[in-house]
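U., I forgot to send this yesterday:
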Amino acid sequence: MKLKSVFFVLATMALLLSACGGGQSQQEPAVVTIGWTGGPDSLNPGAAWLAKAYTIFELVYDSMYDLNLDGTYSMGLAESVERSDDGLVYTFKIKQG
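Result:
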């Protein structure tokens, strides 16, 4: 089922991209809008259960850490972090802006 969904998205993108170059001038940008069926169960990160909601959270909210493609973590929203000696308290310094 997932393979069919991926094929459908790729086929749709190919059709949209092939249609973008037709009669438009080079000055006029093409706009492609992509959406999906269904929706999140909640926009509250503390109350959501569905994976669709967490996909939206990644697009909307910043997180303290970012997961890199190689499986490591890097600082996201935070500039630095200090851990207490007992490991129970973490103090984050948030980036400006």
